[in-house]
Predict the 3D structure of the following.
Amino acid sequence: MTLSVKRINDTFVGEVQGVNLADDHGAGEIKEIRDALMDHGMLVFHGQKMTSEEHVRFSQKFGPSEIHTVKQYLLEGFPEIIALSNRGDKGTKPIANGGAYWHSDITYKARPPMGSILYGLEVPPEGGDTLYCDMAAAYDNLSDAMKERIEGLKAVHSYLPRFMASRQIDEGFQDNKFELSDEQKAELAEVVHPIVRTHPENGRKALFINEGFTVRVEGMDEAEGQALLDELNAHATQDRHIYAHGWSAGDVVFWDNRVTMHKATDYDRQYARRMHRTTVQGDVPV
Ligand code: SIN
């Protein structure tokens, strides 16, 4: 297989043609896809039709699955798949807008995931786009003074404040309408990561903070740290670093969490939106 990858954004998005993700790809094909992911940061595949088994099989060619701590959204029979569906899915709670804030997946773990593979099964006729942000370009475009200021700084990440906030987002369709067990809360305890990480495969530096889960700068006065995080988030999310993916059913987006962050946008909730995500385990950020 020789992949056909068209760059559809100036910096980090590749659109892949001629690949059926339901196939049982061999090592050579998987290497081509992985290389394309490393060259870009995220890949878009259109017109896919995968069973849950096939989705998991494709995902596990890139590494073991990260199983989400919040079991309430795991697809029955497939704990490797998190179902983001406003109607609920097999055995899962409904969730209207699972990641409606800038985040990179599961940065509140000591080893955040390498990648995520999101499959659009049912999508609204308009709205419900996912925005993606190129955090390597965002780092490159920082001033030298800011690069120097954040060199060596670390930030604390946690899921719990976000979990609580998303119970209050929208009284009409409130998400996360359940309690977490003490065990789940313990798994979601705070972790510390560098604010700038170096990609373990291509050596690029990227900003590694996000609005969703980064709660403070380690060792810095709270207000000063929050002002720094706000400034970095505002810098990162400028239009020049963003790609908006408007979904068609059958689209699959595979992103590298180490160089991107993303955010789901709103839509008319009279329409179904049902997405399945697998998540590939990663490495300790350095
Ligand atoms: C996610 O945050 O992983 C899902 C984004 C989306 O539903 O658009």
Remarks:
- The two ends are 34 Å apart (CA to CA).
- The chain has one domain: 4-280.
- Residues 84, 98-99, 105, 116, 118, 130, 262, 264, 275, 277 surround succinic acid (CB under 6 Å).
- The mean pLDDT is 93.
